[in-house]
Amino acid sequence: MSTPGRIRLCEYRAEWLDELILMWRASFEGGVGVVDPHPIDEQQNYFLSQVLPHNSVRVAFVGQELVGFVAASKESISQLYVRVGFQRNGIGTELLEWAKSQSAGTLWLYAFARNHGACSFYERMGFVQIAKGFEPMWQLEDVKYQWPAPTKTAT
Fold first, then answer.
1. Residues of the chain whose pLDDT is less than 70?
2. Terminal Cα distance for the chain, rounded
3. E-strand spans in the chain?
4. Any idea of the CA torsion for 17, 20, 23, 27, to the nearest 10 degrees?
5. Quick one: DSSP state of residue 119?
6. N or C: which terminus of the chain carries fewer CB neighbours within 10 A?
């Protein structure tokens, strides 16, 4: 699906919670290839109690449709999701550029290794893998990325 019109970023507002959670879940499931077993109200509570208090959240719209969001602090990106069918239209790039612009000059994030679209996107945007690990709740391998690439010190 193409995105006719301009991408507009807005600071998160509580009235968008339900739509944001449904979009987030569908995007996560599509990208990672797993069904999220958590009830919607549990994901809403997680967003309100863990994501929102520790991050600035920007929501992307095309027209009146919520098409993505990013939750980022000055050091890291906690969440970045684009609505299924709207990827590869500049939405993720806009969200990521906003996160970079409000950062302290460097950012780190985690992505699931099996989410090849997300990993490729972050690498195209200048992030480099700095560690590989395992996320115990989801039982999936993950990758830690950093932007910009760490500088090598002379020995």
1. 1-5, 153-155
2. 50
3. 7-11, 56-62, 65-72, 77-82, 107-112, 128-135, 140-147
4. -120
5. H
6. C
